[in-house]
UniProtKB/TrEMBL annotation:
Its EC number is 3.6.1.8. InterPro entries: MazG-like_dom, NTP-PPase_MazG-like_C, NTP-PPase_MazG-like_N, NTP_PyrPHydrolase_MazG, PRib-ATP_PPHydrolase-like. One of its GO terms (molecular function) is ATP diphosphatase activity. Keywords: Hydrolase. Belongs to the nucleoside triphosphate pyrophosphohydrolase family. It comes from the Bacteria. This is Nucleoside triphosphate pyrophosphohydrolase. It catalyses: ATP + H2O = AMP + diphosphate + H(+). The lineage of its organism: Bacteria, Pseudomonadati, Pseudomonadota, Alphaproteobacteria, Rhodobacterales. It holds the Pfam family MazG. Residues 34-107 form the NTP pyrophosphohydrolase MazG-like domain.
Amino acid sequence: MSDPFTAGPGLPRLLAIMERLRDPERGCPWDVEQTFASIAPYTLEEAHEVADAIAREDWDELRGELGDLLLQTVFHARMAEERGLFDFEAVAKGIADKMIARHPHVFGDASRDKSSDQQTLDWERIKAAERAGRAQAGVLDGVALGLPALTRAVKLQKRAARVGFDWPSTGEVLDKITEEARELVEARDSLTAEETFEEFGDLLFVMANLGRHLKIDPEAALRAANAKFTRRFERIEAWLAEEGRGPEDSTLAEMDALWDRAKAEERT
């Protein structure tokens, strides 16, 4: 008889491995102790690592990261099965049914003669009908709390825009950014730390709205800016290392000059 943990197709093996890991008597004490809440941060982390591998176009690593993300789904499904809520098969069936329902132009009789923009509108209309069926009556209902904050801001703004709560152009958004920046400066100079925190959040929220109006994903834009900062700062470290120094042994003026050198190097 073959070992279910080492032989056979990958998915049945993974399900069997997770079942054993969660076994109270024969499993791993750490895995047995976990809950939905304790595993959720790992799930978010793995999703970000998938995005990171894609951004770096590291396809071998992407394969591994997708496996890590799949493990998170299997982990949650196993815990749900133990509590009699649902199992992995129900998860797979649910998403398969959802894809069929949301693509009537592929799996049904609806016309495929539509633009991607029209398909996006149709998709949102179908999702709205699904929310109505789940008694989610509010415009903002169902926007996940666990999303990265910038991504969630854009999703909230898109929902509000559908019912007309939106600035008509980028000009008004830019005016609002100026207003919020001024309020942040005033808060820094004369208000409490809590009020300054709130004004900073307001400015970030409007910046996300500007990205939406410009059709720029603010989360992706910030990731790109993070990568650029990392790349340029590593060049500063490399040049200083050639002199036997580190950033801690340098002045701000020296590092700023090297930063400009790194910028110029990227333009050539």
